[in-house]
Design a protein that fits this description.
Strand content: 35-45%
Number of strands: 11
Order of helices and strands: EEEEEEHHEEEEEHH
Shape: globular
Number of domains: 2
Radius of gyration: 17 Å
Structural class: alpha+beta
Distance between the termini: 38 Å
Largest sheet: 6 strands, antiparallel
């Protein structure tokens, strides 16, 4: 069964428990029955049980994590959450090719560059910027490929200073830029 998920974050709400050092992105829309998926021991996402949709996430150790990504993020959190409301992404699955494509940029002419087995970066033909990624053999190996990709992105995010860039670094940076964790506030 082919499907398309268009995710918007325009209804995002959050709560930061400063004593427990936990950031709760409370919701990305109306409450839905959801499954919790621990990505790392400090990062949990919840995905709706029906049509797949990201419902919320929890980040334990927010001060520690944000200090590594961007130290001023804690002070700027309210403004950043407001900016996050403009973020969008699309997830498409095709039965014909058994591929899942994740895009955080609008559709545009693109080509694919192999990142790993069954994982491809999607790059814009004009400019070569990363616009998303594609997972092949999705029904058979999609969950394992997605787990590897997310794990590699977290490894890239928290690599010690001076670590040579790995293949997932560019995708990690593009994803964070899209969510405005690395960029300034200029539109």
């Amino acid at each position: 069964m082919a499907f398309v998920i268009e995710q918007q974050f325009d209804q995002v709400e959050y709560h930061c428990d400063r004593d427990g050092d936990v950031l709760y992105i409370i919701s990305f829309g109306p409450p839905l029955p959801a499954l919790s998926m621990p990505i790392e021991d400090w990062f949990i996402i919840r995905i709706s049980a029906g049509a797949p949709r990201l419902c919320d996430f929890t980040l334990v150790g927010f001060k520690r994590v944000s200090a590594k990504i961007r130290p001023d993020l804690i002070k700027e959190l309210p403004a950043r959450v407001e900016r996050l409301k403009r973020a969008r992404f699309a997830f498409r699955y095709s039965d014909d090719t058994d591929t899942a494509t994740f895009r955080f940029k609008e559709d545009q002419p693109a080509y694919y560059e192999r990142l790993d087995a069954d994982i491809y970066l999607e790059r814009a033909v004009i400019g070569g910027g990363i616009t998303g990624f594609r997972l092949t053999h999705y029904t058979e190996r999609g969950a394992a490929s997605m787990e590897k990709l997310v794990s590699d992105m977290f490894d890239a995010l928290f690599a010690p200073a001076g670590t040579p860039p790995g293949p997932t670094d560019a995708l990690t940076r593009a994803f964070l830029e899209h969510l405005d964790l690395l960029l300034g506030f200029d539109s």
